[in-house]
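STRUCTURE REQUEST FORM
Protein name: P-type Zn(2+) transporter
Source organism: Mesorhizobium delmotii
Requested output: structure tokens
Priority: standard
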Amino acid sequence: MDETVLKSRFKVEGMDCASCAKKVDVAARRVDGVKDVSVSVTAGTMTIEHRPEADVAKVAKLVRSLGYKVAPLGLAQTKTGSQLEIDTTDHDHRDHSKPAHGTDRHEEEKAGRHDHGPAGLHGHDHGSEEGPWWKAAKARLTILCGLALGAAFVLAKLVPDTEPWAFIAAMAVGLIPIARRAVMAALNGSPFTIETLMTIAAVGAVIINASEEAAVVVFLFLVGELLEGVAAGRARASIKALANLVPKTALLEIDGKTSEVPAESLAVGATILVRPGDRVPADGTIISGSSSIDESPVTGESVPKPKGPEDQVFAGTINQDAPIRVKVTAAAADNTIARIIQLVEKAQESKAPTERFIDRFSTYYTPGVMVVAALIAVVPPLGFGGGWSEWIYKGLAILLIGCPCALVISTPAAIAASLSAGARRGLLMKGGAVLESLGKITKVALDKTGTLTEGKPKVTDVIAAARSEAETLTLAADLEIGSSHPLAMAILAKAREQGINPTSASDARAIGGEGVVGTVNGVELFLGSPQAVEKRTPLTQELRDRIATLNDDGKSVSILLVGKQVAGIIAMRDEPRDDAKEGIAALKELGVGAVMLTGDNRRTAAAVAKSLGLEPRAELLPEDKQRIVGELKKAGHFVGKVGDGINDAPALAAADVGIAMGGGTDVALETADAAVLHGRVKDIAAMIALSRATMTNITQNIVISLGLKAVFLVTTVVGITGLWPAILADTGATVLVTANAMRLLAWRGLK
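Status: completed
Returned output:
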């Protein structure tokens, strides 16, 4: 039966680790009617799938009870099994006087828009996430706890009799908020958290007269969390920095007059003026003017691109040389940068297989650590006559060493950093699972038109016969002026390139399947295929041989007749992208094979493939491409299919990973698992390299987190280390793992 499913999205402030996300996830799932929950620490968002009758306000209330700020972002509807697009922006421009489903206005405000719960309930930053880190709630708590600890040391030296109580009081400053978090998490379905382990260890240390160590351990724990939050903030800032690339205002042109307006108010079809030095305020197409465009903020390319009429420009790029007039092609919410942010935030809510495995592992790992710690504390005293204080102390240290924070964050931190780094270079991967899969690719199947080639023909040769090359091109342009046919556009572009200003032919008209006929200066002209020309006048063997050679190079040939005389030949070809050969070579360096799949004729396919150095498969229908992808998979390859996302849809779906090439179109961004926004073939190799770098980073993180724990576990049991090093083993490992993952933010692509 078809079941209606709603998706509600919330901004959740204060999350900075995988443990936070886990508690939010578990709490939200406890509400009746909630079917699925996705939480992104980096984006600071929570998306819940729920039935219409589910109490969404209760979900927000439960999350708020954990100490997080919650604000609704939007709600959308779909049917079970269908795909859904939802609002992912921080600024919901809809009418908020209309409540989200299942809540009235008052409930919505209670759910988190104005009431953010008791301050300091959670050790993380629950104030505004804007501003310097030292103004955050967690920073204030850490500083306060540090001052209390310092005062306790001074008081203990001056009045030794107050020592235990002074340190207990200092410990309480930091431990009370931690204990409250542990209690609320337990009440909401997460009893085995780091807060629980920390609380038991600190209280146990006081009981065995180790109050000084208990106070220091609590302070070090808060310092570790603070550092963790700062590192998480860096990843969050990398996405916010993308949004800041787009200027706030634009120069709107109406009837020849310009006025400054908010960039977000620009409508599709509007004309804007972009002055030298200004950032482009919207995606668009240049109407007039030529200039160099610095695309490094969006693509990472350091060399500016020369662009002129009909070329596309992206929001956030910088106009360098001269004024240009641009026709807006996408509203603010749909421009390239907005889509990048939207897809990255959604991707960060999707867990990779490795991350899901570690989540499941930690579910059993933490209770297991508590059991091991309890056994270490009681078995030696009961069974072997050991001292109770000594072994309880060791058991408490094991609790802290065994905390899974570093292990749990090892994968999501690396994936979030990689998704952000990739997005800044126009590499979009829809989730951790896709990012992980990309590194496994052993064979890439690439479409030809629009993927390996520019997708539009260019004039490659103008060959003189009865008329000169310049006259042949001029007369052909006269015939084609005003036509929107791709071959006509190629001829007109070549004419503009050579400074030719064509004049319109009289009585110009197309003859179906043959070519174009018209009159210039009283002389009848015909421009068409060799076969159509042969019907009008015979071709010499020399011309036929020349045409065959051009065809062997994958070029389409048009012949211009002036009366019955062959004036000249114009050859055109959809040329490979500038970086196509380099991109195929980069794939080979990574050990990834490449094959070209195209519906074009074998001769053209062979010519293009030969120039790029890859295997061609030609004259294919969409179902043939799908079949070939299946054959490659059966042969043992992990297949990535690269195409335009339209006629390649069956093959994209059949591949292990579907990659769309495009400049931000709906199809390019929505059809496949990943998208190369800027159409560079080399970016396919870069995407695979980023995936492999990410998996290497994750492996390093797991080794760091488990390795440190193993070392300190042994040294604690044999009596070399105690509580202080134990908490350093936990918080230190978490900080090291997070810092290692953040290195991926500096990833700059292939050299």
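Reviewer notes: DSSP finds 25 helices and 26 strands in the chain. Residues 77-129 have pLDDT under 50 and may be disordered.
Form closed.
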